[in-house]
Amino acid sequence: MLTTVDLRAHLLAARLAGVVGTPREESLRSYRLFAARDPRVLIGLDPEWVWGERDVIALMADRCGVSADPGHTFGHDVIDPERTLAALDACAERLADAARRRVPVLVGTGHPHRLIGFYAALADGLSAAGCTVLTPAQGRRVDITTRFGLRTYNLDYVRGVGFVRSAAPERPGCEPGAHTHSPLPVRTALAAVADAGGPLPGLVIGDHGWVCGAGQLGFEAVGPADVNDPAPFVGEAEGRVSVVVPLDDGVRSDYYLPLARYVLNRACLSQ
Q1: pLDDT tens digit string along 72-131?
Q2: Looking at the 3D structure of the chain, how many domains does it have?
Q3: In this structure, what are the phi and psi dihedrals at residue 113, rounded to the nearest 5 degrees?
Q4: Taking the CA atoms of the chain, what radius of gyration do you get in angstroms?
Q5: Beta carbons within 10 angstroms of residue 250's beta carbon
């Protein structure tokens, strides 16, 4: 059994927390863009409150443990592992509640090459507990505006985890799925469930646009976020997102599996 002490050591060794790979200047740029309400960093959230750059920095210092000093502009950012552990515990409580009520769940990621195994483990645990893991709109076209222009993707699922693939033929050796911050995949999935008249998810688990897009539409949503993605944390502060777990979302995919085991164990779900 993975203890809290073991997981804390893993977070620091894998640089999921502690000093992380995210550059401070990249985080500050995201905070400035969020304060300017740039859609690229809002990722589906429509903030109710006024968020200036200093407000965002203060929030991220509170939720993640980054420096609260706006004058700290260089180096690598820092995530407090105690905040990560507390958020993982809160996430486990949400999963345990979903399992008790056996509500349908929707799981999706904008980081399939990093996080699909993490989410698949959670989906497996919830499925074993009697929750229906939804896979709506599989194969549905999703047009997403990127820095390279409008790109066409298709919504896909692997082990119950939603993500988008390029509609263009994938080159041999390419990583499965595309990295996206867009809320359009989760909006497409939720609209398909509603159109079919099926039961709507009682819990959405995801990152980027999946967690913000679902939370904005009033669904209970939980998931991880890096320190250069302030939108989920703002959503949490405003009550639209239930739980956000601060961690580096760019490390090796296998480094996230102990986190999944920890959450499942805390939620008393099958592994």
Answers
A1: 999 999 999 999 999 999 999 999 999 999 999 999 999 999 999 999 999 999 999 999
A2: 1
A3: -75, -15
A4: 18
A5: 16
Q: What is the domain extent for residue 165? A: 4-266
Strands 18-23 and 76-79: antiparallel
Tokens representing residue 133 in the block = 């893991």
Please name every residue paired with 246 in a beta bridge, in sequence order, or none if there are none.
225
Task: Give SS3 for 106.
Answer: strand
Q: How much is the pTM?
A: 0.95
| 271: in domain | no
Closest to 45 in 3D by CA, of 214, 228, 247, 189: 214
Measured between alpha carbons, how far is 106 from 88 in angstroms, rounded to an integer? 18
| Tens digit of each residue's pLDDT (9 = 90 or more) over 177-211 | 899 999 999 999 999 999 999 899 999 999 999 99
Q: What CA–CA distance (Å, rounded) separates 203 from 226?
A: 21
Sign of the Cα torsion 76, 207, 214, 102 reads: negative
Distance CA 102, CA 174 (A): 37
In CATH, what number is assigned to the domain containing residue 130? 3.40.50.10490
Residue with tokens 């809160």: 90
Pure H helices in 36-80:
39-42, 53-64
Calpha distance 157→104 (Å, rounded): 16
Tell me how far apart the terminal alpha carbons of the chain are, to the nearest angstrom: 11
Residue pair 218/244 in contact (Cβ under 8 Å)? The answer is: no
Compute the half-sphere exposure of residue 251: CA atoms within 13 Å on the CB side of its CA. 22
Q: What is the dihedral of CA 47, 192, 90, 102, to 10 degrees?
A: 150
